[in-house]
Task: inverse folding
């Protein structure tokens, strides 16, 4: 029995280890979910100064973090975001806030960025800067790192969903497909949408494996290994009981 307990603990450890090894974008996306975002003061292009609280109170927000001098992912990220949302022009249930995390950026720089993407007159999009970017970054676990060699930030392409109460409902890292956008928009409008860890080789001993084609969970090897000691113990008890039951008449006959 003791051996079975030890085996069960070891197997559970494998399950946890298999999941813990995937410390990547999927794990980062789970940080700070359902926590409140920092209420940063904003200097918004074409508007007076507002607080983040005032914006998300008006409508839920999709928050995109960029900087105007970016020579990497920022421009493709915003372009893909714009294209994804063009197919949802009739959905006015949210607004988009494009916020610079670079202290060098001014509201003039953000105005030029809005014009570059032909979004300066789009009432659903806001371009802004803040002098409280450090606190805001901390509240969403966004950690851009300055590279002095190339004079650029090393950072994720991060899109954050914020509901009308200021809670972070979902985060997307990287340039994503329309389906992911649908889930993000649903989350800021407080519509339940299931989340799952993406399949990978490190999840061999996961207890459940999500199949994106069917939208259902399947039993994984981890759950089978966890259940195996209990099954073996039951079978062993049945065998012992059967053996004792059939051995006793033989003993009685002998005596």
Result:
């Amino acid at each position: 029995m003791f051996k079975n307990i030890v085996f069960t603990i070891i197997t559970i450890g494998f399950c946890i280890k298999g999941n813990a090894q995937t410390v990547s974008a999927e794990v980062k996306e789970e940080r700070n979910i359902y926590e409140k975002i920092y209420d940063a003061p904003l200097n918004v292009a074409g508007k007076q100064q507002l607080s983040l609280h005032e914006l998300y109170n008006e409508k839920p927000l999709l928050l995109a973090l960029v900087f105007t001098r970016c020579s990497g992912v920022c421009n493709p990220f915003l372009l893909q975001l714009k294209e994804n949302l063009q197919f949802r022009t009739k959905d006015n249930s949210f607004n988009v806030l494009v916020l610079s995390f670079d202290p060098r950026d001014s509201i003039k720089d953000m105005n030029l960025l809005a014009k570059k993407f032909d979004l300066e007159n789009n009432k659903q999009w806001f371009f802004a800067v803040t002098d409280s970017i450090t606190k805001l970054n901390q509240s969403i676990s966004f950690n851009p790192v300055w590279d002095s060699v190339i004079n650029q930030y090393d950072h994720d392409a991060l899109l954050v969903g914020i509901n009308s109460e200021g809670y972070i409902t979902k985060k997307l890292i990287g340039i994503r497909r329309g389906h992911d956008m649908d889930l993000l928009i649903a989350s800021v409008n407080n519509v339940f949408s299931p989340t799952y860890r993406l399949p990978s080789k490190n999840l061999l001993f996961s207890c459940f494996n999500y199949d994106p084609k069917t939208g259902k969970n399947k039993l994984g090897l981890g759950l089978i290994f966890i259940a195996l000691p209990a099954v073996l113990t039951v079978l062993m008890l049945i065998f012992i009981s059967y053996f004792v039951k059939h051995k006793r008449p033989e003993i009685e006959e002998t005596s």
